[in-house]
Write a structure and sequence with these properties.
alpha/beta, 9 strands, eight-stranded mixed β-barrel, binds ligand C2E, binds magnesium ion
């Protein structure tokens, strides 16, 4: 009887560990097979041009739906992928599928649409990153200016290596944006030295626009900063109408967030792509 109880308990424990508790060892073995099992997909979130109301660009956000774990958020599995080196294969998968999506939208009539992809610091440190991007753009006949590379401040170390990769990306012709701007520890010095096109105002500032004078001041300042440096600026995490008004008043060019649309599968975004 004790044995029986023990087994039941073990079964409970195992299920608990494997389903709700992030058991990274088990999760890793599943993530390792995610590509071949076709468990990965990409959702796209529209970026709204605040003056025209049109959508000229989307951010690609990866999704993982696993038989055992269900939907795992990228906030959970991207760090795991980075630790285990799986990020390289996953990153390349994202790049290729974004190029395929661009080809699809372009062939069906929208030649100007742009997609932004997130690049983790680990990928950014890779020597062959720029070549890989060039190869996929060539393979699917995508002009470089249809692709945007989002890098966080954490990846932008003040080194010759960072400068050299960014310069090569710029020569290739892709757009370069700084994701979660204002939350990292970088000095403003890099804005002067690196060829950056776009600043993405982190959602932690945008969220408090209506309630915190400090956050609204920071948001306005980032918008001014971007414009003074000849960069574009986009606000992330916009959820309320009040935030949209504030951002328009402050001359912010673009915004993305649940107020406009959640990230969605391409089939649900046709009305934006072919407006
Ligand atoms: P991120 O690049 O800063 O992406 C923005 C995150 O905010 C996304 O979460 C998006 O779904 C969410 N979001 C968008 N609008 C709103 C809003 O109005 N309110 C709130 N509360 N959230 C909003 P998601 O998709 O869970 O991605 C989380 C992070 O995972 C991303 O942050 C990015 O750092 C990373 N990530 C996602 N896809 C990829 C990928 O393909 N490669 C890499 N390396 N990282 C990725
Ligand atoms: Mg991003
Ligand atoms: Mg962000
Ligand atoms: Mg982020």
């Amino acid at each position: 009887q004790v044995k029986e109880k023990g087994r039941a308990h073990y079964r409970f424990y195992q299920t608990y560990m494997e389903s709700s508790f992030p058991n990274y060892m088990i999760m890793e073995s599943h993530l390792r097979k995610a590509i071949e099992k076709e468990e990965l997909s990409i959702h796209y979130q529209p970026q709204i041009n605040l003056s025209s109301g049109t959508v000229d660009s989307f951010e690609a956000l990866i999704r993982w739906n696993n038989r055992k774990f269900g939907f795992v958020s990228p906030g959970q599995f991207i760090p795991l992928a980075e630790e285990t080196g799986l990020i390289h294969g996953i990153g390349e998968w994202v790049l290729e599928h974004v190029c395929l999506q661009l080809r699809n939208w372009r062939e069906r009539g929208n030649k100007d649409v742009r997609i932004a992809i997130n690049i983790s610091p680990k990928q950014f440190q890779q020597e062959q990153l720029v070549d890989t991007i060039r190869e996929y753009l060539d393979k699917y006949g995508i002009p470089a200016e249809c692709l945007e590379i989002e890098i966080t401040e954490g990846a932008m170390q003040d080194t010759q290596q960072t400068l050299s990769v960014l310069k090569k990306l710029k020569e290739l012709g892709v757009f370069i944006s700084v994701d979660d701007f204002g939350t990292g520890y970088s000095s403003l010095n890099y804005l002067k030295r690196f060829p950056i096109d776009i600043l993405k105002i982190d959602q932690s500032f945008v969220r408090e626009i209506g309630s915190s004078q400090k956050d609204s001041a920071i948001t306005t300042t980032i918008i001014h900063l971007a414009h003074s440096l000849g960069m574009e600026v986009i606000a992330e995490g916009v959820e309320e109408e009040g935030q949209v008004h504030f951002l328009k008043e402050a001359n912010c060019q673009k915004a993305q967030g649940f107020y406009f649309s959640k990230p969605k599968v391409p089939e649900e975004l046709e009305h934006y792509v072919y407006a």
